[in-house]
Amino acid sequence: MARTRYLARRLASILVTLLGVSLLLFVMLQLQPGGPAEAMLGITATPQRVAALNRELGLDQPLPEQYLHYLVRLTHGDLGESVIFDRPVTEVIAAALPTTLKLGAYVLILSGMTTVSLATLAAVRRGRPVDHAIRALPLVGLGMPSFWIGVMLLFLFTLRFQVLPAGGLQPGLAGGLRSLLLPAVTLSVAVSAILVRSLRRGLIDVLESDHVTAARARGLTGARLLLGHVLPNAAIPTLTLTSLVFASLLGGAVIVESVFALPGIGQLLVDGFRRHDVPLVMGVALLTAAAVMVVNLLMDVAYALLDPRVGLR
Amino acid sequence: MSGIDVAAADGPVTGTGGRRVRSVGLLIGVAIVGGYLLAALLAPWISPHGPLELDVADALAVPSAEHPLGTDDLGRDALSRLLHAARVDLALGVAAGVTAYLLGTLVGLVSGYAGGWLDLVLTRVMDVVQTMPVIVMIMILLLVLGRGPVGIVVALALASWVGYARLARGIVLAVRNLDHIAAARLAGLGHPRVLLRHVLPNVWTQGFVFLTSDIVLSVGAIAALGYLGIGIEASTPEWGQMISSGQAFLATNWWLSLAPGLAIVVLGLGLALVSDALTDRLGSR
Asked: Cα separation of A22 and A289, whole Å?
């Protein structure tokens, strides 16, 4: 019961925030120099064409009415027509989304593996040189621009050693795995840099706790102790960080997709921005905002399910 | 920016050994950051060539005594451009960071101190801003503000003030019920006075520590815009734009893209060392 109420309240809160995002985007649309129509048509537009497009888009009506209109269309899943593709924005996004989702899943797996192995190594060898080295990694990793890491990886693995494709997305599972490897590694650097320190801390706390001493006394050692008793508990605080990381991961994907010429939603956003396709830019922005909020909610729920001390309140 | 305080996950280093390591770290950090500031200030005098000086006959030259980092595809000296880019990237990054710091701290103070409906509205606004990745928010704002230096600084600040606001709001909420603040209010000091004298100093320093770790993210965002070709005007020397234009010549002149990226990484390292040492010294968080 409490759970249902919690979920309902969180969903309501998400809707309010989304409404805020839509209002923000709508205001931004209006504030463009020359208004949306002129911005779309470019500076060479004649007044007649601007007026015609204004009528077509309903931009000659009062602002509050336009906003309501915009909201009604949103609830029907209508994000408008993309100017550069001449197709509904939802269709354009739906075609690009799988690429970005695949990339995201890849990053999740890679950064998960890196984070767990580095943090475990550091925690088990606490105070030794390898621990200090791993703790120093974020100092460098966090400041590294993702696009630069991408360019350097391109240089090493496609030009120097020529073992991986230079860009674009190849068909099939093997092709996909190969062509998404470098972009995924690129994005994993920043993600792991954020998560390693937190997981190491969590591991050390759990390793020193009574129930691990008890498990040791029962004769549990090595991998069984680590995987069965330590990691699941140590991962909980890091999980909350994951939702923070997700937003920056999405932002990173925007840039990294451009580096590797991947046809995902980040690429759409950049193309849309360059060619002033306002409905497309707004659609992608709305989608990223919704995704961030849903992930936050999921993380909160997972947190409560994993840690019985945390209630869904 | 969505700066995440990694130092917070570790807690202060205890013992004299840790303290000494931190002091060395601070020293190295200050030296690095100082070096960048000097390079940026003195760029016109220490650069071997002008940053816009074309020499097409000598395009894509390999590093030599004449051109220590070689030349780009238009024959411009890469080192000179790198040094001049420090001016652009640092100036814009610091301006955006400081603007976000001031704006965020102000909003956070008001929100935390006022409470009630104003706090509710302001935290909602923070939620809205933070649901979008910084780079997406910047692009939306740039559609309106235009792509000049001022537009970029304002867009970046408007996309990244929330971290400071949440920090300031948190401190105000924690501090407003402390004994000496409550005593000051009971003694009849007005709200602005209590805010200025007793709460602000604490907020100010902690926000500054956050700023030191945040500036490299601002620089990274500016470079990302430059890389995507939607930032500052293309002929202006800028690190991200240099990485992008060097990418076409990776096979032969890989150093053209390597050097500007290293410049950002080393700057980030210097700032992170300073920030870690400050966090430790001020015992913040």
From this structure: 10
> Contacts of residue B93 in chain A, CB cutoff 8 Å?
none
Count structural domains, chain B.
1
Inter-chain Cβ pairs, chain A and chain B, closer than 8 A: 165
Gap between the Cα atoms of A75 and A69, Å rounded: 10
**Chain B contact for A281 (CB, 8 A cutoff):** yes
Partner residues linked to B77 by β-bridges: B71
Cα three-residue angle A211-A213-A219, rounded to 5 degrees: 110
Whether residue B259 is contained in a domain is answered as yes
Domain membership flag for residue B274: yes
Task: Name residues 120-149 of chain B within 8 A of A (Cβ).
Answer: 124-125, 127-128, 130-137, 139-144, 146
Query: Domain residues for B184?
Result: 28-283
Of A17, A140, A258, the CB nearest to B128: A17
CATH number, domain at B185? 1.10.3720.10
How confident is the prediction along chain B (285 residues), in pLDDT tens digits per residue? 333 333 444 444 444 555 666 688 889 999 999 999 999 999 899 888 888 888 878 878 888 888 888 888 888 889 999 999 999 999 999 999 999 999 999 999 899 888 889 999 999 999 899 888 889 999 989 988 887 899 999 999 999 999 999 999 998 888 777 777 777 777 777 666 777 777 788 888 889 989 998 898 899 999 999 999 888 887 889 999 999 999 989 888 999 999 999 999 999 999 989 988 888 777 644
Tell whether A258 is within 8 A of chain B (Cβ). Answer: yes
Nearest to A84 by CA among A252, A290, A278: A278
Question: Is residue B152 in some structural domain?
Answer: yes
Q: Give every CB contact of residue B269 below 8 A, 6+ residues apart in sequence.
A: A139, A140, A143, B29, B32
B240 contact A CB<8A: yes
Evaluate whether residue B20 is within a structural domain: no
Reference B82, options B31, B43, B117, B133; nearest CA is B43
User: Both tokens of residue B35?
Assistant: 């070096």
Q: Which of residues 65 through 124 in chain A touch B, CB cutoff 8 A?
A: none
For the question of an ipTM over 0.90, the answer is no
